[in-house]
Request: fold
Amino acid sequence: MFLLKKIIEAFVLPPGLYIVALAGMGHYLKKRQMPAALACLALSGLMWVGSSKIFCNALMSPLEHAYSAPAKPEGDVIVLLCGGFRGGGKPFSASERLEHGTLERAAAAFKLYKDTGLPVLISGGAPFSERPESEAAAAYLKELGVPENKLIREERSRDTEENARFSLKICGEKGYKKVILLTSAYHMPRSVLLFRKAGAAELVPFPVARRSGGPRFYSDYLPGGGLEARQAINEYLGLLYYRLYYSFFL
Reply:
């Protein structure tokens, strides 16, 4: 019964609902307009595959396993890259202001701070929010117990390229030479590329929050949200763009 419930759920909620609708339209059109029917069935199949966890994992895995976190990271500063801000009413906890990706990174940064005692430079402006992402992440870290004098905020950046440029400028001003770069594992290849292009001579990648890998379940083959596929494709396009940009324009 549990298995049946989960299969039904996958096709009642989007994007499964759209897959069923396209398949139904293809069935309806097969006697009237065969090319249109085949197009509907093809789109239905592509949507199913593209939103399944097994496909998302296949896209994510090369990005997430490009770098491994060192067992004993050493450096002068932890640079935490933010990944989104939530608006809304007055929160009970500062964590409620952080998008899921930022929350994962900030929680890992707190653990790394506890292990190393290093200052945390939080990088994130306000490209789509009324307050800088770094402000919200700093409030959460203070809530966890990180003292104010261990937190540095970079509040101007709007993307990863600006994260790198503005963060390294602050590091230079403060005399930090060896940077421990902390971000989501899927985001690390692009981040490393841009930090190195921005002049980071000593960079220690510290990827967190891997999503791919692990055992497989029947639900991995069912339609899902497809968010990971979108994030992975965005990273591949970003890597392609910057590699072309640095190859031909700089």
Observations:
- The longest strand covers residues 178-184.
- The chain has a mean pLDDT of 89.
- The beta strands are 77-81, 120-123, 151-154, 178-184, 202-208.
- The domain at 64-208 is CATH 3.40.50.620 (Rossmann fold).
